[in-house]
Design brief:
By secondary structure, this protein is mostly helical. About 85% of the residues lie in helices and about 0% in strands. The N and C termini lie far apart (about 85 Å).
């Protein structure tokens, strides 16, 4: 085997082991919490979060409307004074 290839293989094996360990920890945590890929708890939580995101998007749109409207009105008032 090539002497320059051995360190590369060692690094690849170490990173593979670390990645696999992180994946196993993630899956174990998911199983402990009951969030399987098809679980109803995960779907329910996902629906709640989607509803919250939509609500927050509406609120941001309203705030943007208020902010942009005030600037335009203020600019028109300044122009009217000149």
């Amino acid at each position: 085997m090539n002497a320059g290839l051995v360190p590369v293989l060692i690094v690849a094996i170490v990173f593979s082991f670390i990645s696999f360990s992180v994946y196993l920890k993630y899956k174990t945590t998911q199983m402990k919490l009951g969030f399987d890929e098809g679980s109803t708890a995960a779907r329910s939580e996902n629906e709640k979060l989607n509803a919250k995101v939509k609500e927050l998007e509406k609120r941001v749109q309203i705030v943007e409307l208020i902010v942009t409207d005030d600037k335009a009105r203020l600019q028109n008032e300044i122009n009217a004074l000149a």
